[in-house]
Design a protein that fits this description.
The protein has 471 residues and is of the alpha/beta class. It is 36% helix and 23% strand. The protein has 15 helices and 22 strands. Strands 1, 2, 3, 4, 5, 6 and 7 form a seven-stranded mixed sheet that branches. A six-stranded antiparallel sheet has the order 17-22-21-20-19-18. The chain has a five-stranded mixed sheet with strand order 9-8-10-11-12. The N terminus is likely disordered.
């Protein structure tokens, strides 16, 4: 992403920037005008243009930036309605699956407090790359409309989202059957905006639910290093599990009753296995997951007779498959999960409700649920490590192809059986262990991911990645 307002680009899931440097009123106005021009061109032969729902998270001035978006759209003759309150990002996605043709969310998701951003939603999920590429073109040429006298329409969207969640899970009866405490960490994010309507049981322990634009000094990303308070509270309360949501509540993390952080490569198979059992063995379709995810889901899919496919990193690629193909379950390494019967969007609160259902219906804690998976499908030790490089690698595919030529026939004593270059280089070994080396593309950063059946082997795989880069 460039800091220059004429070079606004949408990354994995939207435009992000540092407030007052990259993310400014001028940038937001250009994005809104570019969106208005895009809508006008796409609907030039129809009388009524699609309505736009505008949402926002709890970040500094997010509500004001949202109103600015609506002002520009309204000045262009487009009906835009701003949420009356901060809400989870999936709440706006739900609206775009109904009467709103498009959604705009002011959020920087899991990034630090000094960032803000813009996500574009369409048909119940993030706008696909084909749409955002067109938008970037319109934004680069946009001249924002003047907005004197424009009145912004505001409406509460909270009830619609709560109703959607209740339609997917019988929440009140479910919570009434909880046989012990469950801790939910909102990380000071927008998920807490619906906490009183959704998480009503006395057994629900809510932490970091207050509205704080500084996020209590933490980064609202639900990964182990930011979940110390959740882990300690789970242990102190002797809870069945701990659940965490990111800043805009579309990502999810799990801490077991033993206070262990569960990786996405452990969470995804727990979900998939339960959903298959929940379907009474009638689960059909495909499992689609990001290339940075692991082998347990593949093994479960194979055992259930489901096809399996990997996608580039970014939930938008999974969402596209959910729209165009028969996808039973989708998962990404950053904590996004979705399944058949819902909109094609990751939703942290919906995932949290599914884990509450799992513990109520099975009578098992998180560690007991995972122990069943491990006994049937094997162990998973997954680690991701990012490290700085001297310069950015702009072409991921070229990087992957060159690196692939350097590969030995065996790594850590195991034969290399396959490689995947759809997003970096993924190396698969004969026992399903794997290593992914994926450059950022926009900054001098190499992301390395590895999974095996032991801490020792996972560490060796990551060490091999470093040595390979030094060759």
């Amino acid at each position: 992403m460039s800091s220059h307002p004429n070079q606004i680009t949408f990354g994995t899931d939207g435009f992000r920037g540092i407030i007052a440097r990259d993310f400014t009123y001028d940038a937001v106005r250009k994005i809104a005008q570019g969106l208005a021009d895009y809508i006008a061109y796409k609907n030039m032969r129809v009388t009524e243009k699609p309505h736009v729902a505008v949402g926002y998270d709890r970040r500094f001035m997010s509500d004001r930036f949202a109103s600015t978006v609506a002002e520009i759209l309204t000045a262009n003759g487009i009906t835009a309605v701003v949420s009356a309150e901060a809400l989870p990002t999936p709440a706006i996605s739900v609206l775009t699956a109904g009467k709103f043709g498009l959604g705009v969310v002011i959020t920087a998701s899991h990034n630090r407090f000094l960032y803000n951003g813009v996500k574009i939603k369409q048909n119940g999920r993030s706008a696909p790359p084909s749409v955002t590429a067109e938008l970037e073109n319109y934004i680069s040429k946009a001249v924002p409309m003047k907005t004197p006298g424009v009145v912004v329409v505001k409406k509460s969207f909270k009830k619609g989202y709560v109703d959607y969640l209740n339609s997917k899970s019988r929440i009140a009866p479910l919570l009434a059957k909880l046989r012990g405490p469950v801790v939910i960490d909102f990380m000071y994010g927008a998920g807490a905006e619906v906490a009183d309507e959704i998480f009503t049981s006395k057994n629900i322990v809510k932490i970091r639910a207050a509205s704080d634009p500084l996020f209590g000094g933490i980064t609202p990303e639900p990964v182990e290093k930011h979940l110390g308070e959740l882990i300690e509270t789970v242990k102190k309360k002797r809870a069945l599990m701990g659940l965490a949501l990111d800043g805009d509540a579309d990502r999810f993390a799990l801490v077991s009753d033993k206070g262990q952080y569960m990786t996405p490569c452990q969470i995804a198979p727990m979900l998939l296995d339960y959903l298959l059992k929940r379907s009474g063995g009638k689960g059909k379709g495909k499992v689609a997951q990001a290339v940075s995810m692991g082998y347990l889901t593949r093994r479960i899919a194979k055992a259930a007779g489901l096809t399996f496919e990997e996608t580039p990193v970014g939930f938008k690629y999974i969402a596209e498959k959910m729209i165009s193909e028969d996808v039973f379950f989708g998962a990404e390494e950053s904590g996004g999960y979705a399944w058949k019967g819902n909109i094609p969007e990751r939703d942290g609160i919906l995932t949290a409700l599914m884990f509450l259902e799992m513990t109520v219906k099975t009578g098992k804690t998180a560690s007991e649920l995972y122990k069943d998976i491990e006994a049937k499908y094997g162990k998973s030790v997954f680690v991701r490590t990012d490290f700085r490089m001297e310069k950015a690698i702009p072409n991921k595919h070229s990087f992957a192809v060159k690196l692939k030529k350097k590969l030995p026939k065996t790594i850590i004593g195991k034969k290399v059986t396959d490689t995947n270059t759809i997003d970096g280089l993924k190396i698969i070994l004969e026992n399903d262990s794997w290593l992914l080396m994926r450059p950022s593309g926009t900054e001098p950063l190499l992301r390395t991911y590895a999974e095996s059946d032991s801490q020792e082997n996972t560490k060796k795989l990551l060490e091999f990645a470093v040595k390979l880069m030094e060759q």
